[in-house]
Amino acid sequence: MKKVARRSQGPKPVLLANIGQLLTLRAASTRSGPRRGPDLKELGIVHDAALLCIGGNIVSAGTTKDALRDPWLKRNRKNVVEIDCARKVVLPGFVDSHTHPVFLSPRLVDFEKRIEGASYEQIGAAGGGIRSSLEGVRNGSKPALTAKVLRVLRDMAAHGTTTVEAKSGYGLTLESELKSLEAIRDAARQWPGTVIPTLLGAHVVPGEFQSCSQKYVETVCIEMIPQAAKRKLARFVDVFCDKGAFTAQETEQIFAAAEANGLNVRAHMGQLSETRLAPFLRFKPASFDHMDHVSEDDIVQLAKADTVATLVPGANYFLGLKDYPNARRLIDSGVPVALATDYNPGTSPTISMPMAMSLACTHMKMSPAEAISAATINGAWALRIADRKGSIEPGKDADLAIFNVQDYREIPYWFGVNRCTQSVLNGEVTSPE
Ligand SMILES: [Zn+2]
């Protein structure tokens, strides 16, 4: 009786039937940890499949024949929300493990300046870049920021994303960073998907600390991190470690403060210049993101670690760069690779994981199968939630994306259009298109 009562409180049971290709992303090998090398190509595809979710969890996934034999389903079919997938492709909802959604205005001056030939650093020096988003967030009300984040989350779900890592980082004062994290929390409460909040107080050194960056690092370490941890507003601490942002030494200092406050760490690494990564591995970072510049030595070290290399080709695309991170070298060396949008107003204003996957295929020579693993199960590893997310297996959260295609390779193939017709977020079904 108790079981039934608990079930009736959550989302209604859902049966997805008549699935053409179900990409389960079940591990093909017994190796644990993030997917590497050839394992990235294993999608665990079931043809002519069905999938049952009860109480927000996946209960069974397999061939239609097997799924319909489920004794619970036989007894309760009338009370189940049934979706006829009409031979479409169903896969785990995307895990977008790197986004910056807390800002209010697009950066159209940066966009035009860059088209005229200005570099990332020149735009920053001219008052554009990250610092130009600060005013809106510092002056913006929490409800306005919350509404903005919620709009983004809903847009993401419409494109198949069911889990989102969301960073602060456009306030850069104690008050406005906490306000940003509260906006993320408040938006997450109104969205059926899953949000993992990250404190990115160390995004850049704000103008008022320009001549004394160490003082700003102390603000991050002594004020922002302890408060965010105490109020449970962040799961991770992130640092933009690069020229024009924070040094390796400052990054270590911030990582140490995060560790002391019980928060996990991740960092933007190697976007503009190379930083030695091996010394940071003692902090067990969940992910190093960007990775345009990385040494052979560090690749060898990363192949032995569970730190994921999160690639964000949307930024390279939008900056009009000719070079992209060397995904092939990373994958072929055994480094676990994830894909994310890096949604942000300056360098990657896209919420589309299929777009990131398309760029991964065309510009980084990842196969469609590798791109799908990187956008789902390895995104979950990059957020340390692979026990609940990123694959379709009994017991895991019911996070699914339904794509109006016959073959999974069409997802990165049809770039620039949205082929996602419906998503399921922790068992809640979005309305069909
Ligand atoms: Zn970023």
Describe the structure.
- The chain has 433 residues and is α/β, with parallel strands linked by helices.
- Helix content is 35%, strand content 21%.
- The protein contains 17 helices and 16 strands.
- It has helices at 2-9, 64-68, 71-76, 108-115, 120-125, 134-139, 142-158, 174-189, 213-230, 248-260, 296-303, 313-318, 327-332, 353-364, 368-375, 377-382, 410-413; strands at 14-23, 45-54, 57-63, 81-84, 89-92, 94-99, 161-167, 194-202, 236-241, 264-269, 287-290, 308-311, 337-339, 400-403, 420-425, 428-429.
- The strands form 2 sheets. Strands 1, 2, 3, 4, 5, 14, 15 and 16 form an 8-stranded mixed beta sheet that branches.
- A hairpin with a 2-residue loop joins strand 2 and strand 3 (57-63).
- Helix 7 crosses helix 8 (174-189), helix 8 runs parallel beside helix 9 and helix 9 runs parallel beside helix 10.
- The longest helix is centred in the middle third of the chain and has 18 residues, at 213-230.
- It is globular.
- The two termini are 37 Å apart.
- The site of zinc ion has 5 residues, from loops.
- Residues 98, 100, 268, 342, 344 line the site of zinc ion (ZN).
